């Protein structure tokens, strides 16, 4: 059996296992191990399993060891810990409260504040699912209590939660950087303008929705006094400080991204204890949640690394590049097909799974066309962000529904989410059509 055939069977098997909800780490490791074993066993043209055991074991354990000992990977638990500690210390809640106080006198102001709060949360941590879960506990029950239409109350938070993928720091950007050997710093800064565009798009969706159908939001609340607004801003100063540590530290040349994450965790912990908003129990809960989330991501990342190594043995990627070169599609057609693949996969698979399945095949193709990998990383993460709220799976939708309970059935969330999906598609088109949106800031970073 030739390696190309083995590789195609491996991809088909992986998609099947993921479709029937086999945990992604086990699917990737199992298929990659079987693929490597088959290639080594058929190396001489006949099936000789005795020669495959040692080579397969070396591929599996060496790649897993190299990944886990990657210095860049240490950013993931640090940024996850930053988000969990900040939530337990009330810092993320303060960001939402500040936005709420400033915007509550606007029609639909609480929904808009929820999106802004999600953006602020995203600037502290890098997980969209954590953002949707955390902000769902804070914002959605309050909007429902005030009389917001359940579709608006839930969809705004589910969509706002996806900002955690694009607004840095982002776990997806870190994983993309590791597997494509690109700069994490450049990816982080490249996501800023697309993230802001997305946030503005979501705010416009809320505004237009309420203008066309005023019944979805209650009337304006009384405006807060300037004293209340200033107090709310003062309460949110820890979030601003953390943001400055990460961005000024990294792009001012004071810290690496990993060091900035570590310093931010320490500063956040000190602030929490000093303000008495964080105690030992809350700190321990934050660390425990960080360990659970990090372990899951590391298992997936290790499986992905092994899968990429096994895929390289099959030669599927060079064959795909040759096939596309022979077909000679125009660049717009190629980009449309890539976007279509990600949007379809996003309906069924989780973002990390999609990334590790597609990057081994698409990165060589993108490089063959001379496209910028930093820009492509922003496009990929934006597509993955869209997948988080795309039916029928939409992970953020399911997370929010589980957090809120019976007040937010999945059908209700999806009934409101399509409006935000339209804004996402517009932003995606702008990013693809005008690469400068992603590259103008990253080109200034060394």
UniProtKB/TrEMBL annotation:
GO terms for molecular function, please? transmembrane transporter activity
What's the subunit arrangement here? The complex comprises the extracytoplasmic solute receptor protein and the two transmembrane proteins.
Report any Pfam family annotated for this entry: DctM
Asked if the record carries the keyword Cell membrane, the reply is yes
Q: Which residues cross the membrane?
A: 75-98, 110-135, 155-180, 187-210, 241-274, 295-317, 329-349, 361-381, 393-418, 425-445
State the similarity comment.
Answer: Belongs to the TRAP transporter large permease family.
Q: Where is the TRAP C4-dicarboxylate transport system permease DctM subunit domain?
A: 12-437
Highest taxon, organism lineage: Bacteria
* Protein's UniProt name: TRAP transporter large permease protein
| The species this protein was found in | Roseobacter cerasinus
Record keywords, A-Z = Cell inner membrane, Cell membrane, Membrane, Transmembrane, Transmembrane helix, Transport
**What does this chain do?**
Part of the tripartite ATP-independent periplasmic (TRAP) transport system.
Q: Which InterPro entries match?
A: DctM, TRAP_DctM
Query: Coiled coil: which residue ranges?
Result: none
What's its membrane topology?
A: Multi-pass membrane protein
Coarsely, its chief localization is membrane
In which compartments does the protein localize?
Answer: Cell inner membrane
Q: Which GO terms describe its cellular component?
A: plasma membrane
